[in-house]
Amino acid sequence: MKICFAGDVFLGGDLLKKPCSNLVESSVYNNADMRVVNLEQPISDNVHVEDKCTLYTGSYALDQLKELNINTVNLAHNHIQDKGLAAISETAGHLESAKIGHFGAGSDLASAKQPYWLTEDLAILGYCEFSKPYLKQIAVADEKVPGVNPLRLESIMYDLDRLPIGKKAILYFHWGMEHVWLPPADDISLVKLLLEDNRVVTIIGMHAHRVQGVVNHAGKQAYMCLGNFIFPNFYIEPPVQILYPTEEIKKNTKYITRMYHAVYKITYKKWRWVNRVSLILEFCTNTSSIKPTFVVQDDNFPRVRELKGIGLIFYSVFFNVLRFLYTLPKPIYSVIWKIHAFEVTTTWRLQIKWFQLRQLGIKDFLKKTVNYVQRKF
């Protein structure tokens, strides 16, 4: 059997209630026997929305999942609670009614830890990192509280130990910093440790919104981040919540950002090219072999095609560069990662401040900056 693993999928924004039958032009995806993605949203019809950066749709997204022939989704991520904790159970209920599998989050810790069986002998387990400076506001499941399966070594080993004898698992991680090419050094150490476990077949990562490299260890692979697979452009209303505007509001929206950040006026968020390239994996259950394929999403509408030409050459070379960097001794790699993370974070913040300056004008921008500094210190 061939299973296709793809990256982040969001069915709102410009894709809201749009047909999805012909959205993906990839033989690897379309010819697979099963398709697994990271569903970067809750599916909920309740009116409550959390006061945070949000992504969500109503239950009409179920029809789109079916049109995309998606069989199973990961729910262990930082947006699953965007319509409140009750919506986590609601999302699971909607998926079950549509006969779409799910894993990684649930109405309590036991359900969040429940493996989804891809075959009789192969399960998939989902986890979300939490309590990190770069990954916060995570609803972690407890014995009686809805949330995600926590990404901690002891939690993973507990789940692996509960597998029946002779059964194996694919581990699915939502982790790391956003918008960086290199994962933290400790993440590379963790996947190497886990790949040495005979019960672990491979590890697949999400969250960085761009393709990261692969760690080869113990004859197996860990794909650190697949990137955005189907992630449409969308509108943001101040400060950071997703907006579904009227046509009149769309027509009068003057500001466009290629980043993801707080805004002071209604803003149209579009993805950069590096955020529209992703990796899909064709996994053969008979041989446990993995074939990676690069795909790219169109700029103005989330149609996905296989990457070709100069773009494919660039990513093929760069992917191997990342693979090499992951083999460096940890002390050396840690220094490279810290420099890279600092450069990305600093550049990102400066670009955001420049955008906000353009929205507010110098006077209001300085006033808000002074108020922020006074609150901070």
TrEMBL record:
Residue ranges annotated for the Capsule synthesis protein CapA domain, each copy included: 2-233
Membrane-crossing segments per the record: none
Entry superkingdom: Bacteria
Pfam families, per database record: PGA_cap (PF09587)
Family annotation (InterPro entries): Capsule_synth_CapA (IPR019079), CW_Biosynth-Accessory (IPR052169), Metallo-depent_PP-like (IPR029052)
Family affiliation: Belongs to the CapA family.
PANTHER family: PGA BIOSYNTHESIS PROTEIN CAPA, POLYGLUTAMINE SYNTHESIS ACCESSORY PROTEIN RV0574C-RELATED
Record protein name field: CapA family protein
